[in-house]
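Here is one chain, start to finish.
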Amino acid sequence: MKEIYLGRQPIYDSALHVEGYQLSYHPTESADALEDAPLLDIELAHTRALFNTLIEIGLDRLVGNSKVFLGVARDLLIQGSLQQLIAAAPHMVFEVVADIVVDEPLLEALKALRREGYCFLLDEYEDNDAYRALLDAATYVRVNVASLPEPEMLLLVAQLQQRGLGVIASGIEDQHILETCQQLGFNYFQGRHFSQPRLLKFQGIQTNQQAVMRLVSALNRPDVDLKKIEALIAQDVALSYKLLRYINSAYFSLPRRVDSIQRAVTLLGLRTMRSWATLISLSNVESARSDLMTIALIRAKMCELLGEQLGLKQRDTTFMVGLLSVLDLVAQAPMPEVLAALPLEEEINAALLRQEGGLGRILACALAYEQCDWEIIKESGLDAAQVNEAYMTALTEAYRASNELLQD
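Its structure:
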């Protein structure tokens, strides 16, 4: 099977909770064997490759319980082959591409599939006769926010919502565009802005958060003292409770219950303690984003695996760089300001602030995969197949670990 990049980009609802993920197929080879074939043949081949990959990997591994938005070739809709490739499910939405040929066979096929329970999204919607003919079969409509002036966009969104459609704003590049789209009444939002922090004044850390930050700082010192770690945890009731609940969770499945802070610290070891404490510190910072802890775990595991590929011996550090890379998103403040409250080694700071050094190279690759920036990945010198496998493994680990790491 040809190795591929599998793009995975979130779509957020009005509360900035994840509504679902758009999945897309990208061959890793610079010269695709089908590049000289007709466009429709390429589209069909890519759709089949995407669906086959999803069946092999499993949707739960890629998106958890969220909805999944998938592009689908016109021929699969017309020929009735969609049912043969993948069964309809409430959390699956099939995308009708922007330049699709709209005719009677397509309209009849979509209406028939809609009656069977299939859900469709109209991509890059424009208010013309062809697209209006497709609205009866749609559940979602995606509109590029740069395609119309604001007064016309306001009218279009209202008209689409009157038909009971969920309207997605794509191309959200910054906070100003997001706020404008919220005012225009869009139901859902998608774009690169959601991997960037808002430039807000960083608010002071609350008292209980200070205890966690002291713990994280102590765990990251070269001369770390386990006795001091135990004392810092024991001084905070909430930390003690969370640690004992974590060590006794199904994630570890220990034969005997652990009731001692000292034994818990000993069993977990420094690496796991650093990860746990960092995640606890991130979870204590208020944020409207429900997906950031999962993003942190995905980046952390991916960085760790990519570091192993490059032969880096700093396994603990590569994992930590991935975890800390979401600090600015969670705190909604610039990274330098956030890192000032968390003294770290200069190598980690250089990776987080400027993506410099070996750690920075790994983080840059993980961020590029998240943004579907395949050129940066190719330029990284990392093997494409291994990068894909690292991402898929990281997804699995993130969904498996997040509930246990962050439970109350």
